[in-house]
Predict the 3D structure of the following.
Amino acid sequence: MAPPDDDDGSDLESLLRGRSFEDRTFTGLEMQEADLAGKEFAGCTFVGCKAQESRWRGCRLEDCVFDRCDLTQARPAGMVAGKLQFRGCKLMGVEWTKLGRFVNLSFSECTLQFASFLRLSLCRTQFVDCTITEANFFEVDLGEADFRGSSLTGSVFRGCKLRKTDFSAATGVFVDPAANEAREAIVPVESAVLLAMHLGLRVAGYSGPAAKSEPRTGRGRRK
């Protein structure tokens, strides 16, 4: 990382003018459509910032936190993200792709509606108490990821690695094993039932009473 800038200001002007920042806190900045390409942040915190449609290509963030920020339709493609935490943030419509080799993200109490995660390794990623409705996960390694408390209604998983992914305390989960590597994924009972019904099975207690099989009768003799 380049040496941090001498200017220790944390206002928008300093942010846009500088290139390298360390242990800074940026609070309440109006960063809509800001171009932050090529900047480097280490140990920085963004609090209550409005950064809709902001651009982060070539930006490096190490051990940084976004707290209650609005990053709707932000463009992180090309970002290098190492230990990047999002807490209570709005991240609607964000396309997460091309984030470097060693991605380390975590999300808690975030809104990720309409987001897309494409061709990423997100092993052990935390998605805790998030709204992740109508989102897409395509060719993502989510091994041992944790979705506890999150809503996944309408979200699509395709070509994903889901070994030991924990959906047990999530809602609205539908994972098709035919379209994903889902061995040892942990799903709630409701999701298992939904999958069974999708495959044409009837589940007693969920899809009406199971049909009773009638005993076979042998062909009687003619008298």
In short: The helical segments are 12-17, 189-198. The chain has a mean pLDDT of 88. The CA atoms of residues 93 and 115 lie 4 Å apart.
